[in-house]
Design brief:
- The protein has about 150 residues and is α+β, with helices and mostly antiparallel strands.
- The chain has six helices and eight strands.
- The strands form two sheets. The protein has a six-stranded antiparallel β-sheet. The chain has a two-stranded antiparallel ribbon with strand order 2-6.
- A hairpin with a 4-residue loop joins strand 7 and strand 8.
- The two termini are about 20 Å apart.
């Protein structure tokens, strides 16, 4: 990833075959640095998470060290496996988003791709705007971030 992370956002498009054309600003950071393999999943079904495979394998290693019967571990694994599939960026920088996930997250046509430092998140533009309105930024949010030196 360029300088340690994916950042910013960009409009992208899902084609009729369910392929997301990963925006150029993110594509080279995946293909050139991490390789074309990715894990496409979600935790809630409301958005699509695209992890470069090396990042996802780091998460799996941490999960392997956690107690397998821990309820939060089980919930996490259930959800990412329900929505998830391995994939790869093709020669044109496209990745297939599973039909179940496209339907659940209303990922059709124009979408917005967000850099989340270690992975990408894809949202239906209208749903994301609603999320921003529901989750207004507060002074308390700013104070909590200040605890991290941000």
């Amino acid at each position: 990833m360029d300088q340690n992370g994916f950042r910013g956002s960009s409009v992208a498009r899902i084609d009729d075959k369910g392929r997301l054309k990963v925006p150029t600003v993110f594509r080279s950071a995946i293909q050139d640095v991490q390789g074309p393999d990715v894990f496409v999943t979600s935790l809630t079904g409301g958005s699509v998470l695209i992890y470069p495979m090396q990042v996802w394998l780091d998460i799996e290693r941490k999960l392997a060290d956690a107690p397998a019967n821990h309820p939060s571990v089980q919930k996490f694994v259930d959800r990412v496996n329900y929505y998830g599939q391995t994939s790869e960026l093709d020669g044109q920088g496209r990745v297939v988003v599973p039909q179940l996930l496209r339907d659940s997250a209303a990922i059709v046509g124009d979408v917005r791709v967000f850099g989340r430092i270690r992975y990408l998140e894809v949202w239906n533009e209208e749903r994301f705007a609603q999320k921003l309105q529901r989750d207004a930024w507060t002074d308390e949010d700013g104070m909590k971030l200040a605890q991290f030196g941000i």
